[in-house]
Specification:
This protein is an alpha/beta fold. It has 6 helices and 19 strands.
């Protein structure tokens, strides 16, 4: 039976084979990650394989297609082209699938079988990868849904699509319509999958936040896609699920792409979030929910999935320790500005589920409080690896650990990049 298993008591009942599609750009394909790590399959997870290497997206019934063990790289490494020549290395969905199965085993539910598809396209904006876009990304996703559904049926397995993993946004960092684009992609993809499979279960879109573009942008409030990714999850948290930022992972020297361990940990963290959502245990993304000001003091309330909030101790004092934005050196990632310019932050302190931010002066007009929002020279981009990247020290105390146990508290929920006008 294809796509007919339903929701029970707030949980999604796993099919015999559950399919997740990974769409996005360079961080979706493992670009510049170096040596692949996931070279063997520890469970029974699978991927589509075409013995000809062609992957003709108009032929999902081709006899050359089969399901093979899921390993990295999922196809030959190229990284700069469209599907099927789109893979850059250790793509995150491999670690994601293995983590999903590990969580099922840990609950005593046995080895959950996962299939994944990667249709990412490095460097491409939404207009290229969307339905009707100038690339084959969207059509390739539906091609693999059809092909894997057929092969699952041939094995006597029930089958359904568990979600769309969306790792994107760098090339849309100045796109004012990006929030609408995310909603459109989700609506169209869910409708198409449900029509193909007669699937009654919704198809969530799991949206992570990009933190690296505009690259080397000196100045706050310029990363529009990051703000809209956060808003998409806040607006419809039971439909589009915001899975958090990525700046906490180890970045390459370009401050844009992750290292191989970063891609692996990102996939595992994504799986922890998706699994909790499916099991009915997902509460909310870690995010700001309220802002109150009294003079020079702003109190910011947070939704904290796994309290208490803490300042991470593994990354020193955070960014902006010198240079143009040294006035924020004590902000641990927080930033303050108004129409008169940058406002020095004297202190930030955690008080239960709030952060109390004290500025050196009361604001004039148009106060903005932001977090991990401003990149600066010499490197720009994102992360703790290189000076100038967008990052911050605030996280929750989630004790979850991925199956490969990457270091640096990367499995905690970290405060997302945000910009907020405060009265």
């Amino acid at each position: 039976m294809i796509g007919l298993s339903g929701a029970v008591s707030g949980k999604v009942r796993p099919w015999d084979l559950t399919h997740y599609i990974h769409m996005g750009q360079s961080l979706a394909i493992g670009y510049l990650g170096g040596t692949v790590l996931s070279t063997s399959q520890p469970y029974t997870n699978v991927m589509l394989h075409d013995s000809t290497g062609i992957y003709n997206i108009t032929q999902p019934n081709a006899g050359t297609l089969s399901l093979v063990p899921l390993v990295a790289p999922v196809r030959a490494v190229s990284g700069a082209a469209a599907y099927p020549d789109n893979i850059g290395g250790e793509s995150p969905e491999v670690g994601f699938a293995n983590q999903m199965t590990a969580l099922s085993v840990a609950r005593g539910q046995g080895q959950r079988k996962i299939a994944t598809t990667n249709v990412g396209y490095s460097g491409q904006p939404y207009s290229v990868i969307c339905k009707g876009g100038s690339s084959n990304s969207y059509a390739a996703a539906l091609y693999e849904v059809r092909a894997i559904a057929r092969l699952a049926a041939a094995n006597g397995w029930t089958f359904g699509v568990g979600g769309l993993l969306f790792t994107h946004g760098e090339s849309d960092s100045t796109n004012l319509a990006y929030g609408t684009d995310i909603a459109q992609l989700h609506q169209q993809f869910q409708a198409d999958v449900q029509a193909i499979l007669f699937q009654q279960v919704p198809v969530p879109l799991y949206c992570s936040q990009q933190n690296s573009f505009p690259y080397q942008a000196v100045g706050p409030g310029v990363n529009l896609s990051a703000i809209m990714q956060l808003a998409a999850g806040n607006t419809a948290p039971r439909v589009t699920v915001f899975t958090g930022p990525k700046y906490q992972h180890p970045y390459n020297t370009d401050s844009v792409h992750l290292q191989n361990t970063g891609y692996l940990a990102y996939g595992e963290k994504l799986a922890i979030t998706v699994d909790r959502y499916e099991q009915g245990n997902w509460q909310s993304a870690f995010r700001p929910v309220s802002f109150q000001r009294s003079g020079a003091v702003v109190t910011i309330g947070f939704a904290v999935p796994y309290p208490p909030m803490v300042w991470d101790g593994g990354h020193g004092a955070g960014h902006h320790q010198s240079g143009t934005y040294a006035a924020w050196a004590l902000g641990k990632g927080f930033e303050a500005r108004d129409d008169s310019g940058i406002i020095t932050i004297n202190s930030v302190a955690i008080a239960s589920n709030t952060v109390v931010l004290t500025m050196a002066r009361s604001p004039s007009t148009n106060l903005f409080i932001s977090y991990a929002d401003t990149a600066e020279s010499p490197n720009g981009g994102a992360g703790f690896t290189n000076a100038g990247g967008r990052c911050g020290l605030l996280r929750d105390s989630d004790s979850a650990v991925g199956r490969t146990a990457q270091s640096g508290n990367v499995y905690a929920s970290w405060c997302p990049q945000f910009v907020q006008a405060v009265a």
